[in-house]
Amino acid sequence: MEAREQTTDQQLRVGLIGAGHWAGAVHAPGIANHPGTRLTSVWARRPAAAAEIAGLYCAEVADDPAALFDSVDAVAFAVPPDVQAELAESAARRGRHLILEKPLATSLAAAERLADAAYDNDLATLVLLTRRFAPDVRSWLGEIAELPGWQGGSVRWLSGGLLNDRFAGSRWRHAEDGGLLDIGPHAVDLIDAALGPVTGVAAAHRTPAGLWQLVLEHQSGASSTASLSLHTPVRPSINELTVFGEHGHREFRGTTMEPATSYAALLDDFVAMVHSGLHEHPCDVRRGLHLQRILASARELAHA
């Protein structure tokens, strides 16, 4: 989808929930600089942080989330998943289109309630699976889709993200299942897009050091493995995707696209979805719920 040039009256009024690093580095400038959107309101649990972001883009600081929801066409979320689930469900029930972080929630039940609210109100929704909006990733996945007969694959997502101070205050990431919930959606989404829908988790294990190993079953009959860690001291992070089968072996080693560029492409699709009324998308809330179900199965197996 491509966004058209928009007049001020046609631009979507977007409110931002959250004022952390990702909100300030990606969401706020992305929304403010996109021709189809205007950043009109910001709310965060820390009013001073919300005011700092809002002041950079001539946006208002909302007194509370409900006030923000009532003043915008769409809401972008940059908050922990347990906070997002409750607030995004409320925004959906008010008929606001949604840009959602991954995972949708910390529990499957909360993710299901959010997805139901968005579906019941016929909303445009996109989940920040940023790699899927990078042209080089889209091109590689397109080439893979044209070649049948893939029998298996693997994804490795290894990072030292939780070994530095950047996420020191992110309690949900430091929880026992935090690594799975944070990078799991990206990894499972990519191997699912390459080999076809994941239908089950055959095995899941978490080491004391926080390394997750998953064995996934696909609708196509293929199987794959995923190795996930936020505690591995590597720089840059390792993001590798591999498939193999009748056509040999294909490997993709991370995107060269910056998050801000992928976010702009996401906004292109989002604006087009809202204006067209066609709200289905490969990365919409239903995709987020599908990934949440896979991760819930992995957690259950690992803790059995």
TrEMBL record:
Residues 153-248 form the GFO/IDH/MocA-like oxidoreductase domain. GO terms for molecular function: nucleotide binding; oxidoreductase activity. Residues 12-122 form the Gfo/Idh/MocA-like oxidoreductase N-terminal domain. Keywords: Oxidoreductase. It comes from the Bacteria. The keyword Oxidoreductase applies. This is Dehydrogenase. It comes from Actinoalloteichus fjordicus.
